[in-house]
Design brief:
The chain is mainly α and 215 residues long. The longest helix has 27 residues. It is globular and about 45 Å long.
């Protein structure tokens, strides 16, 4: 489930690069979250009544992680190459695996994985936009937070209810910024179609699969 989700996510990221020149990072984030929220709300039809205060706190934190992670990642790949951005971003989950594992063997596997992604990414940091690198690091930290909040949401909400609610909250928060950044281009049919493709590949499929896997 995780592997399929990651493949879909990176294919979606590759498609999103074609949209950046027209709508910008905030516009792309808005398209992705709005379409993802619409799809998930139709599929899941989440139950809103009867939720505890702790449930809502959990799902709102999940929504904040979703929105910030997506925006940081798109800001990163608008400044530095996609492969290098993903290489830096994966440091967040790697560090989380070491902390959660609490065994030297986990640290060994994380170190080997880190060596692998550095080799594959061909990092050449001195030629990279420092702001882009900082956004990639932020995306990695937020990815770790996303994993934790996704797992917590999956325990408190049945099926895909929590993911649908979190995605809707994130979409509402990001949409005004995306609209201001992209302007009329945000509603161009070409970018809407590509935005829908990115939403399905980069959010709807991987987030749903990861939430099930984390259960």
């Amino acid at each position: 489930l995780v592997v399929v989700g990651l493949i879909a996510q990176d294919v979606g990221a590759a498609i999103s690069i074609m949209v950046f020149p027209e709508v910008g990072a905030a516009g792309m984030t808005a398209l992705r979250l709005v379409f993802s929220a619409a799809i998930l709300l139709v599929i899941a039809r989440p139950r809103l009544r009867g939720r505890s205060r702790r449930d809502w706190m959990t799902v709102v934190l999940f929504a904040a992680a979703l929105a910030a992670m997506n925006l940081s990642f798109y800001e990163a790949i608008s400044r530095i190459p996609l492969g290098i951005a993903v290489t830096i971003e994966v440091l967040g989950p790697l560090l989380l695996s070491v902390i959660m594992g609490r065994r030297w063997l986990n640290a060994l596997w994380a170190a080997l994985a880190l060596i692998g992604v550095v080799i594959l990414g061909g990092l050449n940091l001195e030629r990279l936009d420092p702001i882009g690198v900082l956004f990639a690091i932020a995306a990695g930290a937020l990815w770790a937070l996303y994993i934790l909040t996704s797992a917590a949401t999956g325990r408190r909400f049945e099926r895909l209810d929590g993911l649908a609610i979190a995605m809707a909250i994130a979409a509402v928060v990001v949409l005004p910024f995306g609209a201001i950044s992209a302007g009329a281009a945000l509603f161009d049919p070409r970018w809407l179609l590509l935005g829908l493709a990115v939403a399905v590949l980069s959010s709807t499929i991987p987030y749903a699969l990861e939430l099930v896997a984390l259960r």
